[in-house]
């Protein structure tokens, strides 16, 4: 029902903007590569998270946690065995195997032929009839120091990633999905990539990014929302700032009796550090230490670094 304002004018009901991604209780089994009669491998068991619209969400987890499988399910490459996936307000279901419209994808390995140049990518996009910004693409390549006529096979690892990111961004995606974009990059190439993404994304509040990584180094100030996976399950999710507020970094001296299992050892001194929950806003009881495998070290360290807390100090 539309209720009138005190002025007498009717108030239009607010239409809530759907999040970039909403995943609920997702389970995925990976089919056997050679035979459909052989049992599939269960890869994801219970994944739930929401990637807010207009934000950068990082899927974090150690090797085999399920990051790539989540991304493949989101882009329609793998069918959910259970649960639901919504991308840009549209359900990605069993009948929906194509990459949802408005989504740009940068896979974790190069997929274009080595002898291709930027011109080949433009020609392919023209053939497919996809929207593709043919002036933005070479400009982004130039910003990454890539010559327009350079063959993909002649590029460095960092340039190959920058090439794939530029090709994805030229499709003007509402959601950009990047699988392990940082893995092969040195610190300088990482910051160039972050700058490239930031430039393209900050001019429009509705664009969103989902990236997977097992190492947030160099990305901590770029990421707004964290989703931590372990063994095919979501173990922690939250806004980075809220996670910071809800935790303290505690440092335990060598030999302290209360060192939590999995606390990160600090050098050779025998001291250890752990991230302790201070409220239950992220689903952990206050005073609970986030332990491996609950929370990979890198997340704790990244949060600590972002909070400006020196590692090695007693914070309790
Ligand atoms: N093609 C496949 N066949 C069988 N099992 C697979 C296949 N791909 C992934 N898996 C399994 O699914 C689980 C999740 O793998 P996934 O590649 O999604 O993890 P990840 O977090 O991306 O790891 P990494 O950081 O090493 O890339 C793992 O246990 C893995 O062994």
From TrEMBL:
Domain ABC transporter: 21-256
CDD domains in alphabetical order: ABC_DR_subfamily_A
Classification via PROSITE patterns: ABC_TRANSPORTER_2
GO molecular function, one term: ATP hydrolysis activity
UniProt keyword ATP-binding present: yes
Nucleotide-binding recorded as keyword: yes
Coiled-coil region: none
Domain of life, source organism: Bacteria
Gene3D superfamilies noted in UniProt: P-loop containing nucleotide triphosphate hydrolases (3.40.50.300)
Record's keyword terms, sorted: ATP-binding, Nucleotide-binding, Transport
Pfam families to which the protein is assigned, alphabetical: ABC_tran
Protein name: ABC transporter domain-containing protein
């Amino acid at each position: 029902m539309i209720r009138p304002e005190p002025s007498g004018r009717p108030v239009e009901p607010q239409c809530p903007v759907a999040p970039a991604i909403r995943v609920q209780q997702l389970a995925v089994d990976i089919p056997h590569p050679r035979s459909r009669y052989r049992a599939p491998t269960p890869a994801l068991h219970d994944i739930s998270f929401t990637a807010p619209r207009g934000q950068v969400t990082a899927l974090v987890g150690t090797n085999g946690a399920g990051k790539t499988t989540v991304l493949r399910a989101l882009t329609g490459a793998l069918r959910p065995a259970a649960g639901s996936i919504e991308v840009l307000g549209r359900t990605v279901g069993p009948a929906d195997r194509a990459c949802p419209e408005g989504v740009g994808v940068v896979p974790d390995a190069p997929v274009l032929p080595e002898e291709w140049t930027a011109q080949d990518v433009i020609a392919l996009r023209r053939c497919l009839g996809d929207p593709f910004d043919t002036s933005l693409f070479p400009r982004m390549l130039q910003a990454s120091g890539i010559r327009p006529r350079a063959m993909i096979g002649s590029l460095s690892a960092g340039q190959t990633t920058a090439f794939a990111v530029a090709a994805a961004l030229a499709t003007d995606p509402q959601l950009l999905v990047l699988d392990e974009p940082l893995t092969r990059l040195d610190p300088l190439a990482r910051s160039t990539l972050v700058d490239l993404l930031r430039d393209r994304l900050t001019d429009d509040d509705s664009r969103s990014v989902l990236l997977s990584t097992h190492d947030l180094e160099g990305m901590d100030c770029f990421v707004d929302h964290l989703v931590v996976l372990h063994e095919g399950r979501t173990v922690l999710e939250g806004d980075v700032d809220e996670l910071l507020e809800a935790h303290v970094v505690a440092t335990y001296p060598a030999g302290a009796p209360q060192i939590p299992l999995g606390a990160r050892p600090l050098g050779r001194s025998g001291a250890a550090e752990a991230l302790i929950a201070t409220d239950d806003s992220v689903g952990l009881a206050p005073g609970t230490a986030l332990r491996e495998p609950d929370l990979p070290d890198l997340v704790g360290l990244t949060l600590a670094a972002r909070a400006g807390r020196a590692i090695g100090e007693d914070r309790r």
